[in-house]
Amino acid sequence: MNTFPRIGHGIDVHRFGDGDHVTLGGVRIPHDHGLIAHSDGDVALHALCDALLGALALGDIGKHFPDTDNAYRQADSRGLLRKVMELVRSHGYTVGNCDLTVLAERPKLSPHIMEMQQRIAADLGIAADCVSIKATTTEKLGFVGRKEGIEAHAVVMLFPVR
Description:
Helix content is 29%, strand content 31%. The chain starts with 5 loop residues before the first strand and ends with a strand. It is of the alpha+beta class and 162 residues long. Helix 1 runs parallel beside helix 3. The chain has one domain: CATH 3.30.1330.50. InterPro entries: MECDP_synthase, MECDP_synthase_CS, MECDP_synthase_sf. It holds the Pfam family YgbB. It comes from Fluviicoccus keumensis. Homotrimer.
């Protein structure tokens, strides 16, 4: 029987490429570039999946949804998150809360954060006020600052289901 809470941390990055939007937190956001990825490139949800899997010591998103498997080509990352949540529940845990930080110079994310929060909460099966999403720039430093891509970090707290 699981008797203790678990914490997980995840990070993901994707490089910009051709496209007219990015998908972050399950929300399609207009942009003059897309993100290069095997799936939809949603770095926020990929980091969250890694945090959930890491909390249970189940490896990372690439282990469960490898980019060598065409079944996940252009996959909707919300679907991947829901599959990860099935694993979380099958191991006897539920999400207490999650905290995500998206690092991007562009596009501007603040108009989309509430919708991202609501979608993630629905997929995790928790209240929206248990999902924190923050956006920041890197003050023009590094690959994010040079507008070469987007980075996301996620932390989750899991509790045993009693």
